[in-house]
Amino acid sequence: MDGSMVRQVYYEEKDLDRIIEYCERDVITVAQVLLRLKIEPLLEEEEILKV
């Protein structure tokens, strides 16, 4: 899924869980990019909270 699909998934498929998962992955990706730019260690899998 990418950002262009959110409307369809919300209005046509009513799949909020899929949108939530997409957004969570986006946040983790942005965090990893910022850490990389700051030359800091990336988050390990076990450091990422899974609810």
Fold and architecture overview:
The protein has 51 residues and is mainly alpha-helical. The chain has one domain (3-42). The protein has two helices and no strands. The longest helix has 22 residues, at 16-37. It is elongated. The model has no long low-confidence stretch (mean pLDDT 93).
Write the layout of secondary structure elements.
Layout: H1 6-11, H2 16-37
Please, what is the average pLDDT?
93
- How much β-strand is present in the residues? under 5%
Helix content: 40-55%
- The strand count comes to 0
Instruction: Please tell me the total number of domains.
Output: 1
Structural class by sheet pairing and helices: mainly alpha
Largest sheet: none
* Terminal CA distance: 20 Å
N to C succession of SSEs: HH
**Unreliable residue stretches:** none
The shape is elongated
Radius of gyration (CA) equals 14 Å
* Annotation field: number of helices: 2
